[in-house]
Amino acid sequence: MKNLFFKKAALKAGLFTAICLTAFMVQANAGLDYYEIYIGKKLVLKRALNQPLSINNLPVSQANSNEQLVIYYYQCNAPERLASNRVITLKDASGNKIKEWKFANAKGADKGMAIPVKELLQLQKAGNNSLALFYSAEGREQGEKIAMVAGKSKTVGFWKENKNDSRTGSLVLLAFARWRFANAV
Question: How far does the signal peptide extend, from start to end residue (predicted)?
Fold first, then answer.
């Protein structure tokens, strides 16, 4: 009888522990806005607004130029205004608007905002510094910075005259350095 009592108590304690561990392993984002960014079908960024924005740029390149950059933004604090008057704006480091994409109000499962990667690459080539994507919608008119896109990189060469070279005045390239501006706008 005593043995049966201990088995039941151990079973209950084990079940309680398993339930608690399962409950605490799941991250709750209730009440938070969050978004996901895909290139093609590959998830490249997922972020809740209470998490810091990564300084890494979106991996847009010629390799995925035929893909779509699709942004799913979930405005949890105002579900009745979710996805109304949605706008994605591309700005430079100075805050100047480069391009704006307007999207229809989301209905049902169609909440994605698609931007051709090819278009981003063209704007990237024309830009002189880093670019950032901002999301705005009804209830979030001020805009939320959601991702960075590398602009045209700055390449600086350091040159030094080599006195030991038989060809006087020849320049030797010592190093190339690349900067990518990731300034917060």
Answer: 1-30
CA distance 166 to 171: 12
50-104 confidence digits (pLDDT tens): 787 776 778 888 888 899 999 988 877 555 555 678 999 998 888 889 999 999 8
Structure tokens at 51: 């998490």
Q: Which two tokens stand for residue 36?
A: 């996901």
* Three-state SS letters, the chain: CHHHHHHHHHHHHHHHHHHHHHHHHCCCCCCCCEEEEEECCEEEEEEECCCCCCCCECCCCHHHCCCEEEEEEECCCCHHHCCCCEEEEEEECCCCEEEEEEECCCECCECEEEEEHHHHHHHHHHCCCCEEEEEEECCEEEEEEEEEECCCCEEEEEEEECCCCCCCCCEEEEEEEEECCCCCC
Q: Which of 88, 178, 182 is nearest to 131 (CA)?
A: 182
Rounded Cα distance, 179 and 64, in Å = 23
Q: Tell me which long-range contacts 168-175 makes (C-beta under 8 A, separation of at least 24).
A: none
C-alpha to C-alpha distance for 150 and 182, rounded to whole angstroms: 8
Average confidence (pLDDT) over 135-148: 84
- 115: how many CB neighbours lie within 10 A of its CB? 20
